[in-house]
Amino acid sequence: MKLKRILPLAVITLALSLAWKSFAADSLPSLRVGITPNLPPLAFKQNGKIVGIEADFAQQLGKELGREVKFIELDWEKQIPALLDGKTDIVMSGMTVTKTRQFRVNFCRPYLRSGQMALVRREDLNTYALGFPMSPSGVIGVEKATTGDFFVQQEFPTCKRKTFGSGDLAAKALKKKQIGLFISDATTIWWLASENEADGLAAVPIQLTDELLAWAVNKSDPELLSAANKALGKWQQDGTANQLIKRWLPNFQ
Fold this sequence. Notes:
- The chain is α/β, with parallel strands linked by helices.
- It has two domains: 28-113 and 212-248, D-Maltodextrin-Binding Protein, domain 2, CATH 3.40.190.10; 116-204, D-Maltodextrin-Binding Protein, domain 2 (3-Layer(aba) Sandwich), CATH 3.40.190.10.
- Helices cover 41% and strands 21% of the residues.
- Strand 2 and strand 3 (43-46) form a beta hairpin.
């Protein structure tokens, strides 16, 4: 008799607990993630869906915070303005930590170390056998307003430069000999070299800069900054972060 009385109470308690958790999750606002899906394997589109390292991290962060993830697709140069205007909560789009950007946003702890590299036609690889030239020949392709763009402006001010909306467009221009090389994040350069290997493109295995990639949060939202740092710190300790990165970068150390 006692068991029959306790069992319904336990079932009711469990049902109420699940209902409360569901209500609490539904009552939380969506996590609006600013993303520019043109930087494989960090963030790009596959069959119309946003995928990549950043997309996986965003979904993992959403689960950790109990918030539904809503991707806000933006042009790269609009990412920080949108964050400051309250249109997004966090930028998760392969953003490099720079002193200039730190004046405007708070960066979470870095999740990846990378740098700038060059994509060239394989026939031109010998040009870089003894190192990267002080003044590369040909037009240099870059993605507008990225650290690659800033690097070229600073280090190669006399070289002609052409901006592109994505690495794919730059790779097409390189194959058509409209530019002499394309400089971008190392992860993207290796990805493009792999995708266009049969078409004669190759990565120059020289890293031109040393950069840390991290997520950006509005300075007025220290709670999200703390929560994201706590989550990433846990993932870096238990191996989750490494697993998410290695899914797209198998050779990641």
